Amino acid sequence: MRIFDLDSWNEVFDTISRNKKRSVFTALGVVWGTFMLIILLGVGNGFALLFRSNVNNLVSNSILLYSGTTSMPWNGLQSGRFIEFDKKDVMEISGMQGIDGVMYLSPQKFGEIVYDNNTYDGMTLFGTTERVKDILSLKPVYGRLLNGIDDSRSRRVCIIPIQYAESITDNPEELIGKSIVCEGISIVIAGIYEKYNNTLSFSLNSRTLYMPYSTYTALYGKGEDKINIMIADVDRKYDSEEMEKKAKEILAANHDVNPEDKEAIYSLSLSFVFDKVNGFFDGFKFLVWVVGLGSLLAGVVGINNILLIVVRERRQEIGVRRAIGAKPSSIMGQIIAESCVMTIAAGMIGLMLAIAVTMLLDKYLLPQFTDGSMSYFLDRPLTFQLAPGYAMLCMGIIVIMSVVIGILPARKALAIKAIDALREE
Question: CA–CA separation, 238 vs 229, rounded Å?
Fold first, then answer.
């Protein structure tokens, strides 16, 4: 069969259209298989992207250190002591080779604030450093975030979440530069923030206020450097789990804690957690390919079986063509062409249906997981639609399958002897 021979293609389409119902129902298997493969890959990649949108590069290689209560006696000290970190611990952890920096949080303070003679409860207050914006992925909506000058000068400023600001006034922007009162102390609102990274949370995000650590210590900490939580950023050249172990050894020595006491100092290597989750998504992606290709293969096998039946039904026609000198390549090419037309056409329909469905998922399902701002840390939009490269790969697989499944019926057609075929009724 010649590719640019119009008569040959007319014959291919005529053969397919002889039994329209059979052709349509056979092609539906490939349509469904393609549809499922594209949908599963798109949704799987979408959820993986959704997870990564919650984790910026800085956080994913950090270690979390927070204090607990001793459960074992050590050096003459009884168990049951509550451990509180301090600035000395921060300095030593920051000085470790392989640590790029440390963000720390004071003990949290619960209470209420007063603004314009109205009281608003449910507030949580932390003293922290300017690095909080990177670790917890805060972005200013109005005003600004905390900076190093605020901490060095112990400025009485704070930043509040947009949700809390909206509960105070219908126009949150008007709060910038205004004062609120917390436990009788006046504090100026320097900024209103929105949190884009939900991986790390130490309290209810919608009600958490942050102020400079030095200010918090002077106003509420009785001048004592008390720290409950530290997050150390590990250089990617170093193993975060090994750095976690060394940091715990330093803290245990500083606070006379039994090295075997697992409840005095808690820690978590975030890279270990994220590696496990990424491993899950890799396994999920492999499973998607197996299930999707299995569905596609089932549809392709159906076309193969129908082509075998078609060859059987056309034995006399093929025999006549062989008798009048038709070349084997012509007969084989026509059968493979019929296979390609049915499979590729069905694959294209399945692909277009899958694209339409993923567009609907982007419009109606994606907002249930995010307000659209989760892609703030991504280099591409958050979507359930499959990347063009994957779509082209899927279509390439379909094309290869269409050729492969046409070979067996074509070989069956070539095995037909003209004399035997002409004898049949």
Answer: 22
Question: Could you tell me if residue 1 is inside a domain?
Answer: no
173 touches 142 (CB < 8 A): yes
pLDDT score at 133 = 86
**pLDDT value at 375 more than 50:** no
Domain span at residue 409 reads 6-55+274-423
Q: Domain for residue 253, yes or no? A: yes
98 and 235 in contact (C-beta within 8 Å)? yes
Q: Is there a single domain that holds both residue 220 and residue 238?
A: yes
Same domain, 279 and 173: no
The per-residue pLDDT for 373 is 46
Higher pLDDT, 247 or 269: 247
Continuous H helices in 314-387: 315-323, 328-360, 366-369
Pick the closest to residue 136 from 106, 103, 109 (CA basis).
103
Contact 416, 312 (CB under 8 A): no
* Amino acid 241: pLDDT: 85
Cα distances (Å, whole numbers) of residue 85 to 40, 117, 216, 298: 47, 37, 15, 61
Q: Both 49 and 147 in a single domain?
A: no
Asked if 54 and 235 touch (Cβ cutoff 8 Å), the reply is: no
User: 101 and 43 share a domain?
Assistant: no
Q: How far apart are CA 376 and CA 136, in angstroms?
A: 13
CB-CB contact of 361 with 384 (8 Å) = yes
Q: Are residues 406 and 283 in the same domain?
A: yes
For the chain, give the mean pLDDT: 82
Number of domain units in the chain: 2
Helix, strand, coil percentages for the chain (3-state, nearest 5)? 55, 20, 25
Least confident piece of the model among 76-90, 92-106, 193-207: 193-207
| Within a domain: 87 | yes
